Amino acid sequence: MEKSYTKLLENNKDWAIRKKKDDPDFFKDLADGQSPDYLWIGCSDSRVPAEVITGTKPGELFVHRNIANMVVHSDMNLLSVLSYAVEVLKVKHIIVCGHYECGGVVAAMGNRQYGLIDNWLRHLKDVYRYHHKELDKITDKNERARRFVELNVIEQVHDLGKTSIVQNAWKKKQSLHVHGWVYDIKDGIIKDLDVNFTGPQDLHAVYHLDNILESEGKHK
Ligand code: CO
């Protein structure tokens, strides 16, 4: 009996043949290396496929996805992707893209216990607490969830700016902009939240990191 997953392999063969037919050098060019301009940090949700919704091709997006598009400073996976994207690939833009109807965000608003994932969702609950005055005022649960999605994206843009990886790139005058977007599953449109971090001036001063050598001299 044919297993449904084999459909994926058939699709893949068809795709490879089609691509090669359209452009005989397609795979040869990609095999030569990558130099994407964008790092995409998005949700793992199957309804938010980064390349499909942005019309980008292989080689254009460096991608990290996790539940609710979080930038967690103890997450080695995120930090490794960020470090490689910024220091080696020298991407010019980092896009945090959340989405409305995010299961992670909705779960974090409630009190149900899910198990291991509660440890991940707690980072979202912290975001809720930072903004509880604004969020608690929104009586409609769906509207509150939508605003929480937006505030979470903005918070993750801040979290990227806090990292030494991003700050050191800015110190080296590397052009690196961090953006916050939200995708709407209901109409397929991405909303730009207009949070654009282009340098340390966009961060509260308490997060500013001195140059590592300067720091040693200053604080001896
Ligand atoms: Co989600």
Arithmetic mean pLDDT: 96
Radius of gyration: 20 Å
Q: Helix count, per DSSP?
A: 10
Q: End-to-end span in angstroms?
A: 71 Å
| Unreliable sequence segments | none
In terms of quaternary structure, the protein is: single chain
Structural class: alpha/beta
CATH superfamily caption of the largest domain: Carbonic anhydrase
Q: Rough shape?
A: globular
Reported CATH architecture of the largest domain: 3-Layer(aba) Sandwich
Number of spatially distinct domains: 2
H/E series: HHEHEHEHHHHHEEH
**What small ligands are held by the chains?**
cobalt (II) ion
The largest pleated sheet is described as: 5 strands, mixed
CATH class of the largest domain: Alpha Beta
Helix content: 40-55%
Number of strands: 5
How are the SSEs placed, and which strands pair?
Layout: H1 6-22, H2 26-31, E1 38-43, H3 50-54, E2 61-66, H4 76-88, E3 93-99, H5 103-109, H6 118-130, H7 132-137, H8 141-162, H9 164-171, E4 177-183, E5 190-197, H10 212-218
Parallel strand pairs: 1-2, 1-3, 3-4
Antiparallel strand pairs: 4-5
Helix pairs in contact: 5-6
The protein binds cobalt (II) ion.
Explain how this protein is built.
- The chain folds into two domains: 1-33, no CATH class; 34-211, Carbonic anhydrase (Beta-carbonic Anhydrase, Chain A).
- It has a five-stranded mixed beta sheet.
- The model has no long low-confidence stretch (mean pLDDT 96).
- The chain contains ten helices and five strands; from the N terminus they run H-H-E-H-E-H-E-H-H-H-H-H-E-E-H.
- It has helices spanning 6-22, 26-31, 50-54, 76-88, 103-109, 118-130, 132-137, 141-162, 164-171, 212-218; strands at residues 38-43, 61-66, 93-99, 177-183, 190-197.
- A hairpin with a 6-residue loop joins strand 4 and strand 5 (190-197).
- With 220 residues, the protein is of the alpha/beta class.
- The radius of gyration is 20 Å and the shape is globular.
- 47% of the residues lie in helices and 15% in strands.
- Bound molecules: cobalt (II) ion.
